[in-house]
């Protein structure tokens, strides 16, 4: 079996083929369960994606339409052709969509993260045409266009607007308008997604405030619903609730038992609101598109938390906090620039990018393709719950003069450099 060749005579790498297959698999799975498609439209879309998949497979790898439909109910790994090298990817034995037809967090992250890497490959190879359609690249295009919109308003306003996006991923048009976002940024808010709706209501996550996913469950002979954030860490640490079906009134949620952070990580842990969210009407409310929420709001919460805590800890020893502890400097060339002096008078400058990738190998490959951080950051910092990624990222970062650390380990180092006791 040979690697497929595109119309320009360029061979797909295993990565590029995986990127196309992964995207096509996700879109086809969504098509199977989308509630608003007619049978005719559903069949046409599935046949279209079947054709895309056969093109990515190349000659000599048959996949009848019936088998294609059957495989859509399984994990990504089951739809990959025999010739594709899986060694560059993490475990692929997870479902793409759940019982409600919602793309799972692992599948969504893998699609977005490999799309980012594909853009790097495309740029480096200077391919002269789009291999994928605009629809297929829409998530990452949304993300890039959002940044361009915000950057066009100046450095100081960028910080204000970016903070607003992080803190306000959902709301009414009136609420969003009062926050001062540019009108074209508000265009990236859309109606509440169907997977977050129970009858005419939705519930905001108690950590990030984006609509939580609602799924029907059965237990002890009675049906009930689980409401949880699509970002698993938020669900694990408090954004997870249950309710019984209702006939007329809005349901009242009951919290699950959340995990608690390790004591040494507590200072930087994201907090839930501590309250049980009330139902909000679907009518009149908007929420950020999923890709913008996942890769702007979710990591942005960690970036804001790290910035806030370092300002608090360093306030006693730094004269000008705004200058010394900068957030998203130079319109987000990287996420943090921190300059401190040690008790002996020596200066220490830390330039930092915070990355929250589910799939560490894809992040490592991106660093390799960029030959380090594209903005020039010398530190790669990941949330504390991604600590198992540090060994792989350390090896990769070392090649480019960078260092990798968890948020808490990094914050401890900064404070130690400034002569401040972390506690």
UniProtKB/TrEMBL annotation:
InterPro entries: pPIWI_RE_REase. Residues 300-419 form the REase associating with pPIWI RE domain. This is REase associating with pPIWI RE domain-containing protein. It comes from Streptomyces sp. NBC_00119. The lineage of its organism: Bacteria, Bacillati, Actinomycetota, Actinomycetes, Kitasatosporales.
